[in-house]
Design brief:
This protein is an all-alpha fold and 297 residues long. The chain has nine helices and two strands. It has a two-stranded antiparallel sheet. α4 runs antiparallel to α5. The protein is globular and about 55 Å long.
């Protein structure tokens, strides 16, 4: 699976760079007309690869026996995710402060009608980001020192990612979305599903079923995070060096998704490095165990 992930990753990143540099109209961000059919074929190819990774990851015969109890690398990575979430929260607070400043410069009633809904959305976002930070802090400390995760907090990553996805839908509802926005939506959708099984994994709710989805789904989600973020950072650096390319704003969401992709890989490396023999044919497993326990003459 690791080799497959690496091959698919290089191929998909190559397609993404080609899309950005050749197929995209630099003035609008949309695919040029002459490349429309090719882009559809590329989308289908990437979708098939992602689906293959998800299904092949589920078809393995060895899965974790229980959630990770101690891991220095994953504990540090979790604290890193908490730090990234703090930065993301800070960015939203800055935006919220700017909106409040806008409110003060206008008549309150008119300002509330114009900005009230946006302010409420940002406040909810900040609340969920703070809860996500708390979750990652507790998770990281528990992994470093040992401890159990409160079940009630395990659902926070799902809620936070789902809300981020809902905000993008609301912002672009009824509008023609660029390729970058569509990829970001798909990435957040995969992230939400991954965090769903991650939460069930840590809460030990339907544990055996959850771990069978986590590996392949995690690899696909990490790949999408890299596909979404890495080309944008590359183009930004190229633009700084004088290349004539279109550059998206480096929003906090992009760096957060890049860090999320790295975090998922670290989690999978830890979760699947300590596995139990989980053969899907119980009778064969029992026979093998009985043979291994038979006294030798």
């Amino acid at each position: 699976m690791v080799i497959l992930f690496s091959v698919f990753g290089v191929f998909c990143l190559g397609l993404r760079f080609y899309q950005h540099l050749v197929m995209t109209d630099q003035s609008t961000g949309f695919i040029q007309t002459q490349y429309s059919d090719s882009w559809v074929g590329m989308e289908i190819a990437v979708a098939v690869m992602l689906l293959a990774i998800v299904l092949l990851g589920r078809l393995g015969d060895k899965f974790p026996a229980k959630p990770i109890e101690r891991s220095k690398s994953l504990g540090i990575a979790s604290l890193g995710m908490a730090a990234a979430s703090i930065f993301l929260t800070g960015q939203q607070i800055v935006m919220l402060s700017a909106d409040f400043a806008e409110l003060k410069s206008q008549m309150m009633q008119l300002a509330f009608q114009q900005y009230g809904g946006m302010l409420v959305k940002q406040l909810i976002y900040i609340l969920l980001a703070v809860l996500f930070t708390i979750f990652m802090l507790i998770y990281g400390v528990n992994l470093l020192n040992g401890g159990t995760m409160p079940r009630g907090l395990c659902v926070v990553p799902v809620l936070f990612t789902g809300y981020r996805l809902a905000m993008i839908f609301l912002d672009y509802f009824g509008l023609v979305r660029t390729v970058d926005i569509n990829i970001e939506i798909i990435t957040l959708l995969f992230c939400m599903v991954f965090w769903h099984f991650f939460s069930k994994y840590n809460a030990q709710v339907k544990f055996d079923s959850s771990v069978k989805w986590l590996f392949g789904l995690g690899l696909s989600t990490a790949l999408l995070c890299f596909i979404n973020a890495l080309p944008v950072y590359y183009l930004t650096i190229s633009s700084m060096l004088g290349a004539a390319v279109q550059v998206r704003n480096l929003s906090p969401n992009l760096y957060f998704e890049l860090i999320t992709g790295v975090y998922i890989l670290i989690f999978l490396a830890n979760a699947y490095s300590k596995t139990r023999f989980e053969n899907r044919q119980p009778a064969e497993r029992i026979e093998n165990e009985s043979v291994s326990q038979t006294p030798q003459n």
